[in-house]
Amino acid sequence: MPVNCLFINVKFDTSPYSALIPLLAGGFPVMECPSHIVPVHIGDPLKARLCMDMLMENYKIYVQAINYPTVPRGSELLRFVATPYHTPDMMDYLVDALNQVWETLQLTKIHC
After folding, report:
1. DSSP assignment, residue 85?
2. Are 101 and 17 in contact (CB under 8 A)?
3. 21: which DSSP letter?
4. Rounded to whole angstroms, what are the CA distances from 74 to 21, 22, 38, 71, 107?
């Protein structure tokens, strides 16, 4: 389930949870997760795989597509691993890349 408009007051250099801030602000369907894993809902196995491939080939961003049987059909997602070493510039680059991928694949964003 997407976090929808969650405000988190953290610094990029101290918490991997800060990866949520630019993704949420960008309207991406970030799902709740109690760890440093940042899941982003896709809901389609082919599009999840295409997202993963496009991010690696076009932007050199490594992300894992998670599909059935790891998650139920219709719950396919991208799994990002956030660390304190991911800088604000890196997160801006990720959001820009995701915007391009979302537009190309006509994926749905969340509007708060």
Report:
1. T
2. no
3. H
4. 25, 25, 18, 8, 14
* CA-to-CA separations, 11 to 23, 39, 43, 89, 90, in angstroms, rounded: 15, 20, 30, 13, 14
Give every CB contact of residue 77 below 8 A, 6+ residues apart in sequence. Answer: 31, 39, 40, 41, 42, 48, 65, 66, 71
Give, for all 112 residues of the chain, the pLDDT tens digit.
444 433 333 343 445 556 677 888 888 998 888 778 889 999 999 999 999 999 999 999 999 999 999 999 999 999 998 887 888 899 899 999 999 999 999 999 986 5
Distance (Å, whole) CA 90 – CA 1: 26
